[in-house]
Structures are given as C-alpha cells and as structure tokens.
Amino acid sequence: MSADAARTMYPPIEPYESGAIDVGDGHTIYYERVGTRGGKPAVFLHGGPGGGINPIHRRLFDPGRYDVLLFDQRGCGRSTPYASLEANTTWHLVADMERLRRHMGVERWLVLGGSWGSTLAMAYAQTHLKRVSELILRGVYTLTRAELDWYYQFGVSEMFPEKWERFVAPVAMSDRGDMISAYRKLLTSSDPDVQIEAAKAWTIWEGETITLLPNPDFSAAYADGRFALAFARLENHYFVHNCWMENGQLLRDAGRMKGIPGAIVHGRYDMPCPVKNAYLLHKAWPDSSFHIVEGAGHATTEPGILDQLIRATDRFAV
Prior knowledge:
Number of strands: 8
Radius of gyration: 19 Å
Catalytic activity: Release of N-terminal proline from a peptide
Subcellular location: Cytoplasm
Distance between the termini: 18 Å
Domain AB hydrolase-1: 43-299
Largest sheet: 8 strands, mixed
GO molecular function, one term: aminopeptidase activity
Strand order of the largest sheet: 1-2-4-3-5-6-7-8
Number of helices: 12
C-alpha cells in the first residue's frame, strides 16, 4: 500500500480468547482478545456509554503486531446485568480497566477510545498515567456542561429540526427545558413500554445525527429496542450525573498526560462533539498529533476518520 492510499479496516478477525470477569458489585464484564498473543498490548474503549463492542472494532489494529483487548462496559453488550445503572460510574469503569489490564498480564497498553470512549480514555490516562503507552482519541468528548447542552438542549436542534421534533416528542412540553432530566424520568419509569419508547427516541436521535450524510444502514441498529434500552439508560444515567466529574475536569487536567504520545482524530462536522474541544485538548496536550478530518462527522466508519485511525495504530505499532 502506498503512503498516500487511504487506510481501511484490516480483514475480519475472530477472538483468540474471550471470557467474563466478575468485577464485583454484581457486575460481570465480557472481554475478548484479538491479534497475536504477546504482540503490542492495546485496549479498545467503545462509545455510549452503553454502546458495546462490535466486530468492526477488532479491525482497527494490525493483527500481526497487536494484542488487543476489547470489552463491553458495565451494563451493555454481553456484560451483565444488562442495562443496569447500579454501581455504574466512570470510576467503576476506570477500575474495571485496571482489573482487565492485570488479567491481560501487561504493565502498559495503548488506549484507543472514541466519543464516550475518548472520555473514559482520558479519565483513565489522567488517573493511571504510567499504564498508558500511547493514547488515540476519536471524536473527543470532554464532557462539559456546554457539550451536553449543545447536543441535548439547543444547538444541534437547529441543524436537524425534523429529527429534534421526534426526539422531544415523548417529553411533556413543561419538561422540555431540561431534556436530560426529562428523559431520566422516562428511562427509569416503572412501565417497561415507556422505557422502550423513550430509549428508542433517545438512541435514534444519536444514530441519525452522527454521520455527515444520512446512512440508513448505519442508523438502523439504533432503532433496535434491546440495544436502545442499554444505550439510552446508561448514556442518560452518566449525563445526569455529569459522569461523576467536575465541569471541565478533563481539559483542566490534560497536563497530566504530558509525556504520553498520542493522536486526536476529529471530524470537522462532528455534531455531538464540537471540534473546538478537541483543539483545546491538543493545545493542552502537546504530545498529541491533531487531525481534523474535513467532510466527516462523528462516526468511526466515515472514510477519512477511519483512515486516520488506522494510520495512528500503524504508527504506534512499533
């Protein structure tokens, strides 16, 4: 492949190991490992929270050079109990990552996370600096109040008025001044049908606004009721609690990541995660390279974003 050719995913691959780990608090975490045992250690962090891992995530790394651990975070995918909000916080997940690292038997690993996965990656790196060899972040989400308001209150609503209308439909007019709190009531309702209706509306809003151009095949998965239940409940649960972080904490503490080589990959027209915050992170973390992908939104699968992610994992494979 020439240096200028756009990178695409590595071929489909099956895990060489998979299993479940009891992490306490009633939670069991599903994990899998792909690539070459003993290769460069890496961990992949999915989005959401509540999104779960997907077979395409295995294909972001050269299987001949990497040993990659992927896992479903608490309450989603094949982890149990499904859609549970109990003992499910950012700091529980950071602790789960350390448990998984020790299970893998490595001292340090490359951490790749996108969207919420980038948030978790930064929280982990700022807590366990010596455990991160490199850091690759896609669709940077610094979890400020402004970012939450932009996506769930006013901002993206102006870009997608017809989709916004469907998003607010389950919420009473009197509650629309705080959409995240309003959805909290619906997603924790004692009526399972109310939960599912709200979960689908919440999840479809995201699925239909994260790609630059409409992609029905991509967004269709977001309408699945079972997937939506964990995705919406967990995402809303985290956002109601500001992910158990102070406003602006990740940017404020970005200097802690000094010395960690990394890459930031961000679509110019990323709706959930405005590019400004990725730029501010890069300025606060000079060990990172910064790649704005023109003509791209938020999704991993958009060609320009995928190209930069693969280039980054290839570059750090040595």
